[in-house]
């Protein structure tokens, strides 16, 4: 279900355009071109190299929608990072549908430990399966979150979820993702995983210095590199490690 429709950057008069995050090439390109990103009603992927700006934009979107910069639900403000880490949120222009999500959650792999601690401190563990996430592996806790906490007709923003998951875990994730899509959820996911970004009928934006651009799965650089490795692992490694 489309809760978010489009996103663009419209800097306020007081924006310092030469400073972070406007110095990130993809963000600067979005600004210069007045680009508007169109979200898929079900799943939109942000892909690209480290430092390409995909997580910067996703975090800003999450905070813009009322979620904590470190992750969690709306109203779960267990850190003051919002005031310093997501300045871009002030300069986003987000067009939404008339539908309102019944749930929302921002998940980022790098701060999942902090979110798990906050869940216990808030006394809301029963909504997450009842077992402390600190007593489970990172991947098990993440799958528990998907199964126990994510609800129909929700808006879910996920930053590199594959960091917590084995290959089989990523397959479990895709099955649960599909279940939630069929229950009216919308996802925006930043990922490096060729497996995840292969989810059918999703919109993919690949981030580079020229800004985010729509791309087919088969066109993604990560997919090409992975395929080259799987086609000839020994040859790939020999070329990679050869003396220059």
Automatic annotation (TrEMBL):
Q: Does the keyword Transmembrane apply?
A: no
Among the GO biological process terms of this entry, one is: double-strand break repair
Query: Cross-referenced Pfam families, in alphabetical order?
Result: AAA_21 (PF13304), AAA_23 (PF13476)
Topological relation to the membrane, as annotated? Peripheral membrane protein
**Subcellular location field:** Cell membrane
| InterPro entries assigned | AAA+_ATPase, ATPase_AAA_core, P-loop_NTPase, Rad50/SbcC_AAA, Siderophore_ABC-ATPase
Q: Which UniProt key words apply to this protein?
A: Cell membrane, Ion transport, Iron, Iron transport, Membrane, Transport
**GO annotation, cellular component aspect:** plasma membrane
Q: What is its main location?
A: membrane
Record's SMART domains?
A: AAA (SM00382)
**Stored SUPFAM superfamilies:** P-loop containing nucleoside triphosphate hydrolases
AAA+ ATPase domain boundaries:
40-210
Q: Which PANTHER family match?
A: IRON(3+)-HYDROXAMATE IMPORT ATP-BINDING PROTEIN FHUC (PTHR42771)
Official protein name in the record: AAA+ ATPase domain-containing protein
Q: Which organism is it from?
A: Ilumatobacter coccineus (strain NBRC 103263 / KCTC 29153 / YM16-304)
